[in-house]
Amino acid sequence: MHTAKTLIPSGIGIRLNATEFRALTVTEAEQLLAQYQFMVVPRLGWSPAELQAYLEQFGPLVRNKQRDQDTMLTLDGSKVKSEVVRGNGRLPLHRDGLLMNEEVKYVAILCLQFEGVRNGRTYISDNGAAWHAFPQEIKNALTENGIEVLPQDVTYYLKNEAQWYPFPGTLIHRGKTYMNGGLPYHKGERASFIVRIARIGDALSEAYFQTLEQILESPAFTYYHEWSPGDLILFDNRTVLHGREAYEGHRSLVQMQVKEAAV
Fold first, then answer.
1. pTM for this structure?
2. What string of DSSP letters covers 123-171?
3. Tell me: the pLDDT tens digits for 98-125?
């Protein structure tokens, strides 16, 4: 098994060079994801078609009408200004799939262009390790009450009615507990969704989420990636949360998702 220095002090995330990554079998790659939860491969240089062919070895890809050629979500804020997800604003830490009716296992993000960009880093948080640092009253509220999510990017989400959708507040994977959903947008930011902890009132929910953000985005649990063209990040969507800084400039990424196997 790989013994490289991890990218987050809590013990997850590894960096592989392109040669190391290409040499991995699918089984070896899944073993690394189970151990380290995400991989960073600088300057891999694959095309979107090469990435798709690779990911299809892990299972069926998420397909929907929001994606180019059904499978590729193009993240280019210079082209899509009507949405938050595909725009250039900040995306808070979140887990993919909730408002898209999908159980997403793996997510891959490939950088195609990154020119004259200010900020724009993608960041990943060790959701599992951070859970143990959450105050017990917040863990209780998430576990017992769950969360509610109100979509704002109604042209993007498949669950897009003007209503609160309930979800469990936690996710259990391989016997470990993880926070489900994600963090809310800051006040004044254009939001893709609104999230709250159910049945505790908006003020207390907001206070709880402020505490969670401080923990999840602390240096102990967070990795920030400075993109270069050709870079790849592959992560387990069940065990980490990911987000994006707001940015200026030309930043074009392609994102693809592998679905959970049907039970």
1. 0.96
2. EEEEHHHHHTTS-HHHHHHHHHH-EEEEES-TTT-SS-SSSPEEE-SEE
3. 999 999 999 999 999 999 999 999 999 9
